[in-house]
Design brief:
It is a single chain. By secondary structure, the chain is α+β, with helices and mostly antiparallel strands. Helices cover 62% and strands 10% of the residues. The chain contains six helices and five strands, in the order H-H-H-H-H-H-E-E-E-E-E. Strands 1-2-3-4-5 form a five-stranded antiparallel β-sheet. The longest helix is centred in the first third of the chain and has 47 residues.
Length: 234
């Protein structure tokens, strides 16, 4: 006890509060954890470099093929537009994990960090650029004529769900039949300026969203009424 009091007294004379004396141990622990975190990031880069390159190259190839070979006016839901967008989002999520490891280890001098900086960052950027047209087509469904169709789908979907007796708006078989009969009794159509015939909104699925769009000639598509991503087509 006397020795502790003597140590505190010496510290106070030296102008250092006694409470700061044990901080040396805490500083050492923080430095140790700071060293381990970048090393853990490097392990992640080493393990994920080859798969990440494969994912990024695959996305670039798919995007380039869509630009070169894709139909300029594809039917909604047909590959590769909506399907390509879903694959791209999944691939970018995987790449995001690797970029997180790179961020943690970015100041390290290991060769794998340099590889990631000079290979993966450009590949990821290129994948964004070449896949942008696919996302632009989906985004275009929120404006112009497609935007009006979206509003019509949302309004009709709300009317259909009004037949439900459940809080979540799900329809029973009997309620589905009632909504279908109501929609057949007063058809809901929409005309695109470039199309000779109007498209028809009809009951298409037994689970939400219930409505589909009949484009004629046996072409039907179901859209998420919020994102306008095509979730079914035939």
């Amino acid at each position: 006890m006397d020795s502790l009091r003597f140590t505190d007294a010496v510290a106070v004379r030296a102008g250092e509060p006694p409470d700061l004396l044990p901080s040396t141990g805490r500083d050492a622990e923080m430095k140790s954890s700071a060293r381990w975190l970048p090393r853990l990031g490097i392990v992640g880069l080493v393990c994920g470099f080859v798969p990440s390159v494969g994912v990024a190259v695959g996305l670039c190839v798919l995007g380039i093929c869509e630009i070169v070979l894709g139909d300029p006016n594809p039917f909604p839901g047909d590959p590769p537009v909506d399907l390509l967008a879903e694959v791209a989002v999944f691939g970018w999520v995987l790449l995001l994990v690797g970029h997180g490891c790179f961020f943690v280890a970015r100041r390290e001098s290991d060769q794998i960090v340099q590889f990631w900086r000079w290979v993966m960052l450009p590949l990821t950027l290129v994948s964004f650029l070449v896949l942008l047209p696919a996302f632009a087509q989906i985004a275009g469904r929120h404006w112009g004529e497609w935007g009006h169709l979206k509003d019509l789908l949302q309004d009709t979907e709300a009317r259909v769900r009004a037949f439900s007796s459940r809080a979540d708006g799900a329809l029973s078989e009997e309620e589905f039949a009632q909504a279908k009969a109501w929609l057949l009794g007063q058809p809901v159509t929409f005309r695109f300026k470039a199309e000779p015939e109007p498209v028809r909104i009809h009951m298409r699925r037994f689970v939400p969203p219930y409505l589909g769009v009949d484009f004629g000639q046996g072409q039907n598509a179901v859209f998420d009424p919020v994102t306008m991503i095509c979730i079914y087509s035939d």
